[in-house]
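To the structural biology subgroup,

Please find below the input and predicted structure for ABC-type xenobiotic transporter, which we are adding to the shared reference set this quarter. The sequence is reproduced verbatim from the submission form. If anyone notices a discrepancy with their own records, reply to this email rather than editing the shared folder directly, so we keep one authoritative version.
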Amino acid sequence: MTDRANHISIAMTEDVTSTNGTPRTKVITSSTMVELNKLQPRGSTVSFHSIQYKVKLKTGPLCKRKNTAREILYFVDDNGPTGSARKDPSGLSGEVLIDGAPQPPNFKCLSGYVVQDDVVMGTLTVRENLRFSAALRLPRSVPQKEKDARVNDLITELGLTKVADAKVGTQMIRGISGGERKRTNIGMELIIDPSVLFLDEPTTGLDASTANSVLLLLKRMANQGRTIIMSIHQPRYSIYRLFDSLTLLVSGKQVYHGPAQNALDYFADIGYACEAHNNPADFFLDVINGDSTATTMNKIQGEDIDFEELSGSRQTIEERLVEEYRNCSYFRDTQVELERITQGKQYTTKPRSRTITYNSSFFTQLHWVLGRTFRNLALNPQTSVAQLGVTIFLALIVGAIFFGVKDNQSGIQNRIGALFFITTNQCFSTLSAAELFITERKLFVHEYISGYYRVSVYFLSKILSDIITLRTIPAIVFSCVAYFMIGFKTTPAAFFIFMFTVTLVAYTATAMTMAISADQSVVAMANIFMTISFVFMMIFSGLLVNLPSIMNWLAWLKYLSIPRYGLTALEINEFVGLKFCEDPAVRTTMSPGSGMMTNCSMNTTHTLGITCTGEQYLDYLGIEYTTWGLWENHVALAIMTLIFLVIAYLKLRFIKKFT
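Predicted structure (tokenized):
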């Protein structure tokens, strides 16, 4: 945002006529955003008073990092720089009034805000996206038939009838055009019929013709009485002619606010004349950036242009533009109108607390969000199909490598190797869950702030959809394929315990992945953190190092290892009751319930390094192989899962920089 401080900020409003036939113009000021003599009943007068906005920047090396504040807006009474409508409020001061009154705490839920980057579910159709918005944002007292009628009316009004049942489109699915996509985004906000509609650069990514059609649509809405406030970069002349009120900012300071049709005359009066056939919007950008030929006209005739001098004089040009504006009649008229609005009223310059209100119940939100999530998975099956395909492939590979394990000494090594691979594979296969909250971050933040649904609803929907489709089904398929190919115990109880353990390990690893990635914005960074965590967990899983031999000051790390709990449970399930000595001379037996060797061949087995029973091997590993020893590992995995899910939810809930 900071590198785009010099831009054109334009508010579209309506020219209305008073009872005596005198034209009156709604004005959105630069130092304060207001509307003058607004007569339409639906639009709202928005005024910004003494708005300042600062961001905190971290500078210097990691060991000597310092926090510095950079001021983005300087006592501006307007909608501010592009993209600033929904930024971190911690650096914001000033007051925004709606029709002369403080904005309600849930103003974000009552107004419309169209973000710069389109945020709609690409796998759904235009109609389905609009129905989703209507179901969650319109009051629950509105019947579903009326909501559907509202959707149909909007489709007609936005000119989307031909593509109403076409998918919006994703990177993998071809969808509607850019202009139709932008109109769909606008429709998502118009569902609630807001009196004020904010748009952040609505022409971004659109060609000139498509951008013109979008702005014509907005102009029609302004003519119907809506207050439309938007920022835009370098509009062509046919678009510029549509604007009623123009605000120009340079380095966060206002240099003009007034009627758009008077802007050229104003700049000509202060010494900056626009050349013939030049686009006014381009001319204004050149002037406020110090690049206009109007700033160098005196040097062009007979003198060489010193570009270093021009660059050095840019600060002087900014100061002059600010000073000229503060001395002009437009600034004085704005201040008079602001004083009229605030006369006899008290307002604070400190940012007020904001709340998010909902028009639908928790279960209604869960129904729609969960349904959309599953539908998105069904219509975009690449991830789930790939996950299932990789799972089957790995199951066949591990089954072929360890095929038909024997009840001998080599069978011990093969069994423990197979179980270790299975638990480790379940952990690393959950790395795909890192994208769960990252890829839809912008969509979630926008819909949450706009009052679509609660954080808990979104979180629960994503958890359920991921666990069922990408964790439970692959774990069951993997167990069915690998278990019988390897030749583990053939008893039903052992098989179902194996399947349950593998699934539970996948759940716990997925929860940890979510806890790590919930507040990350880059998938690669989340993958790095998770990979490092899983590698350390592998070391303390019980195979690579004998856990009883670890020094006490490091031994506690084993309690943080997900593979350790899974591997221990699988070892107890598989090894208890197995015999590995075919030669009676060296076979040892276990006294029931005693855990002690009962024949004299025990010394022989120690001498030969032979392990004859599964229980003996578990004793060597220091594993308690009672029934409770098995289930305590499951309990530990369940507790870790809950802890990680709570951490992930809290991270998602308190992402303050987006709210």
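Summary notes: DSSP finds 25 helices and twelve strands in the chain. Confidence is low (pLDDT under 50) at residues 1-41, 78-84, 298-302, 584-608.

Regards,
Lab coordination
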